[in-house]
Amino acid sequence: MSPVVKQAVCNAERLQLRLLQTDQYLEAKKHMVHYWACSSREQYTQLEREGKGVFDLPTYDPEAFEILVPSSFGDHSVPLRVIQPRGKQARGVFLFIHGGGFVIGSAALHDNLLRDLAERTNLILVSVEYRLAPEFKLPAAADDCLDAAVYLLSDDARGKIGHTLQFIGGESAGAYLTVQTTLRLRDEKNIDVGTALAGIVPTYGIFDLSLLPGVRLGREKVGDAPNKQGENFMWLSLPADVFGSLDEIKKSEWSPLYNFNLRGLPPATFGVGAEDPLIDDNILMAAKWELAGNEAELIVYPGSPHGYLVVDLDVTAEAIDDIVKFVKARLTGESFL
Q: Is the overall model pTM greater than 0.90, yes or no?
């Protein structure tokens, strides 16, 4: 059996470059405007559109279009942003779930990444505009992602966009939502996800919402000392009765790390930076995924911070390459391990 944890190849010179970039990136993040420094959702959203929030200035794909999916958890619709590969026969659908601590971010924020993945994998990339906290506490975001996945598995989705769902993936909070969506498809919708999905791609996710010690002690490595970014996001995202109860937060409905039925799940490639406080979440989640009898790998990128997939760092291209390799291997039936 191949080892679950794989360290990406990185020589001493490149490691020094990555560590320098990580330090510079984290220093810059200390001076970015965070959601809790704004007076309203509208103010932060405008800053985000201008590239003055936590994320870089977005570049919107002119060919992206939106479809609306009815919610099964309320009277709202769930918007899905669709990016199709140009001039190629698509091979399936990849549902991408953006990060942002369940509080910030949007479906359109990472069009460049989704366009790159669409062209290199021949998949239709669909980004879900899930509801954000604190206006909509968890599990609102997870409910919207579940609705998106169920729809993308339907004949109606095949008729509208040409294919049905094969992959789910996301970064940070989106990785958490990727895992939770996969589990809820199995448990609530009685879908055999081990065969219905070709694979999942959770990248540097949080899987224990009570925050493992490495997250609490390593908060400076997400560039936010002394603001306790992880605690702030959880306080904003979780219902008050859950946030105030350690026993409640550690239930599997909130923290998938403590789900003790992980059998029958699709192959997974996890990714995390060695400088990310969430590294323990990812090591444990990937190990449990494989120990339950599923195919899994975790690629650890030396010298790399949280968020590397959606910023321009030395590691970014390599990490995207690894996702593409996983997807192509799963589409052709080859081993990715």
A: yes
